[in-house]
Amino acid sequence: MALLRKAVATSLAACIFFVLVSFIWPNTYGAENLTFQKHISYAIASVHTLMVFAFPIVAVYCFITSIISDEIGKLIATKTGKQKAEIFVSGALHIVFGLIFYGAILGAMILLVMTELLLKKRQKEPGKLLIIFSFSLPFMLYLSQGLNNYF
């Protein structure tokens, strides 16, 4: 069930990351001096583009590297006998894996660690509602492009 929590955390972290990136640096197609309404419109279009093309890559990459980081952290913690070593080694490996793509995924990896620690702290296993929400959120963000046509 730890893998389910990791999958939920990965989905939530990647969605939050892409929404933040889209609203901070929307693809404006070279336009300058945007009104607030145009900025929001470009940001929603950017979310759609990122969800289509980048979400699957980032989600799978973050999920796999997070499993690797956690397992290496657990291994080192059992070898040294210090439980705190697991958190530090796992966190450091998450950062290293986040830097591989020139730091582009670093924000997603940091959000993943924070989301997973929050889920772990709040509850042992994610509830059914959280599972449904986290796996449907990428599709809802993908469909948000339809709302962009009305603005």
Automatic annotation (TrEMBL):
Keyword Transmembrane: yes
Protein name stated in the entry: Uncharacterized protein
Organism taxonomic ancestry: Bacteria, Bacillati, Bacillota, Bacilli, Bacillales
Species of the source: Priestia taiwanensis
Keywords assigned by UniProt, alphabetized: Membrane, Transmembrane, Transmembrane helix
Transmembrane segments: 40-64, 85-114, 126-143
